[in-house]
Amino acid sequence: MEREEFEKIVESAFDLLPEKFYNELDNVSVVVEDYPADEIVRKMKLRSKRSLLGLYRGIPKTQRGTWYGMSAVVPDVISLYQKNIEAICNDEEMLKEKIREVLIHEIAHYFGMNEEEIKNAGY
Asked: Which residue, 5, 20, 37, 100, has most beta carbons within 10 Å?
């Protein structure tokens, strides 16, 4: 799938977030990349660059103190790895659902949830 088409699906998934969550997102961008960078693979001790579907990098909302935003702060980043997501999907409907799932999972990290909490929440 072309990057532009994939990004439109990501945008649609983002637009369909519950308003409560959508309105609470602050200083975060969503980007699409083919694969995670080699540095991320090494740092996370991944077996392969093909094993990661998404990644949140930043300061979770639950850890932002009163100091946050007092000076310039680079945006948090949610990366979705297009080639990895596509590799596990059989059709476009499955792809749309997986993008939604990965996006919600990474947004949960933005809100301070760990892997166990996300799993317990059904993601």
From this structure: 100
- For the chain, the domain total comes to 1
* Residue range of the domain that includes 9: 3-62+72-120
Give 56's strand partners: 78
Residue 28 lies in a domain: yes
Q: Which of 94, 115, 67 is nearest to 1 (CA)?
A: 94
At position 37, the amino acid (one-letter code) is: A
Measured at the CA of 17, the angle between CA 118 and CA 24, to 5 degrees, comes to 80
Structural tokens at position 12:
């649609």
Residue 101 covered by a domain = yes
Of the candidates 1, 23, 15, the residue with the CA atom closest to the CA atom of residue 87:
1
Q: What is the pTM of this model?
A: 0.91
- The CATH number of the domain holding residue 53 is 3.30.2010.20
Please name the residue that has the structure tokens 């949140």.
Answer: 56
